[in-house]
């Protein structure tokens, strides 16, 4: 009788569970780079710094020593890398200055992780989410994050494709709120919006035709409001998916607002 050469591993389930737990942990990580931004993060006791990354080629300057001292005082692991390795971590070799760090942010996560919880919350709370379609200006993205974090809105749906990355410029413009708010990441905006739609969320867009004034808009359903830059409308395929179309009335011949201003108005009025 032939024996099965592939014996089951009794620890396989444990290994799988550990892998899932580690992946979930790292999904909440935001990596920043640059000596001053990283130093500011290390000095902030409210931030959960997971690891400090340094290039082996860094000169032993006062800033590098200060980075190491703060890491040591907070028991933060320091990892040394070649310049090539560090550039893969920072994803910006021209501006990382040989320094990066990983920050654990509970509110930063793939949208799939929070979808079930949001559906459950929507049964008793009026959930609203702001989604961004092709917002590429770091300054605008940072200001949007700040406004949404301060507002009653649950958080931001941010696609990795076609949008500004969470760079030091974005974090500076957000006044540090990028580490505090709920930022739900996705790869493809349309696909994620379809998922929200299937789970009962209503999609809303801005338009000037056959629209409801934002001051009169008061839906009871959970909703996702999609915004694009002030020079472009939301793409037609997303407009076709929307159930509610909203207008921000303007006077004196003004036709549009900066997307960061629009996001603030929407976030505080939904």
Describe the fold and architecture:
- It is a single chain.
- With 270 residues, the protein is α/β, with parallel strands linked by helices.
- The protein folds into two domains: 28-104, 2-Layer Sandwich (60s Ribosomal Protein L30, Chain: A), CATH 3.30.1330.30; 108-269, SPOUT methyltransferase, trefoil knot domain (Alpha/beta knot, 3-Layer(aba) Sandwich), CATH 3.40.1280.10.
- Helix content is 38%, strand content 22%.
- It is built from ten helices and twelve strands.
- It has helices at residues 12-27, 35-43, 62-73, 83-90, 111-122, 138-150, 168-173, 189-198, 236-241, 259-269, and strands at 29-33, 48-55, 77-81, 99-104, 108-110, 128-133, 155-159, 183-186, 202-206, 212-213, 223-228, 244-247.
- The strands form two sheets. Strands 5-8-7-6-11-9-12-10 form an eight-stranded parallel beta sheet, sandwiched between helices.
- The longest helix has 16 residues, at 12-27.
- The protein is globular and about 65 Å long.
- The termini are far apart.
- Residues 1-6 have low confidence and may be disordered.
